[in-house]
């Protein structure tokens, strides 16, 4: 039975190969090489996206002009991070690592005890406080928060966003100056 299946598979493969032309083979080879090159380019792009904090990055914008020429402009992005350790009510500790781009805060990764809460982005719509949000969490700090005074600004609270109400995980957080200094040597 297995021999019959094997022989029929060989017969089908032979018939198909006889029907294909050299251009089909070349086209398939070209597509395979193109796909491989695209995968390599995407991999390099993903690695380049993960540049470490503290390194000046450049962004190159390419623009087609009306005359059909290509113009490029390069902009330097100064990215840095700063870690602040907070002591909150009920003896909870929150470690916040803020990401800054050109001196402006953009995002924060938090650690509540041993629980990592990553990827909270700046909420530009918040006017009362500096607020960071993700799908499941919200972190609020005082309005005067900036790169220059991050180690002096208190945090208001960390909340887990619920369907009907939010759960406060940490509140009234003061900067733990000694622990913060150890992180930012």
Radius of gyration: 27 Å
Number of strands: 9
Name of the CATH class of the largest domain: Mainly Beta
Tell me the major beta sheet.
8 strands, antiparallel, barrel
CATH topology of the largest domain: Lipocalin
Mean pLDDT comes to: 74
The spatial strand order of the largest sheet comes to 2-3-4-5-6-7-8-9
Summed up, the helix count is 3
| Count of domain modules | 2
* Share of residues in helices: 25-40%
Strand proportion, as a percent range, falls in 35-45%
CATH architecture group name of the largest domain: Beta Barrel
Shape: globular
Low-confidence parts lasting 5 or more residues at pLDDT below 50?
A: 25-56
End-to-end gap: 73 Å
Order of helical and strand elements: HHEEEEEEEEEH
**Which structural category do the helix and sheet elements fall into?**
alpha+beta
Describe the model:
- There is one protein chain.
- With 185 residues, the chain is α+β, with helices and mostly antiparallel strands.
- It has 2 domains: 1-50, no CATH class; 79-183, Lipocalin, CATH 2.40.128.
- It contains 3 helices and 9 strands; from the N terminus they run H-H-E-E-E-E-E-E-E-E-E-H.
- An 8-stranded antiparallel barrel has the order 2-3-4-5-6-7-8-9.
- A hairpin with a 3-residue loop joins strand 2 (70-88) and strand 3.
- The radius of gyration is 27 Å and the shape is globular.
